[in-house]
Write a structure and sequence with these properties.
The protein is of the alpha+beta class. The protein has one domain: Ribosomal Protein L30, Chain: A, CATH 3.30.1390. It has four helices and three strands. It has a three-stranded antiparallel beta sheet. Helix 2 crosses helix 3. The radius of gyration is 17 Å and the shape is elongated. The relative contact order is 0.21.
Length: 93
């Protein structure tokens, strides 16, 4: 019975942590180059080249890609920098 209670409590803690997680979306546009997007994702989101390339490719072909997940307070400055650089992004729950 104790293990069951601990397991339930652990799951509740995990769900509480997930409630604080937001998603930073990169939205496709017609003017930024793949190289610029890849370089920006590597710099600001700390993606590897492969991750950044995949996100750029997904964004180009599907219109958007979730490029980062974290607390809002951590995503907001990254999103603002990306917007300032001319990328189209949004943060959602």
């Amino acid at each position: 019975m104790n293990q069951e209670k601990i397991k339930t409590q652990s799951q509740e803690e995990e769900l509480a942590l997930l409630e604080d997680i937001f998603v930073l979306w990169l939205i496709n546009d017609d003017f930024n180059t793949f190289d610029f997007v890849i370089d920006t994702l590597m710099e600001l989101c700390h993606h590897t080249y492969e991750q950044a390339f995949q996100c750029a490719y997904i964004t180009h072909n599907h219109g958007k890609c979730d490029v980062m997940r974290d607390e809002y307070s951590k995503l907001e400055p990254i999103a603002n920098t990306m917007l300032h650089r001319g990328l189209t992004v949004k943060i959602t729950k």
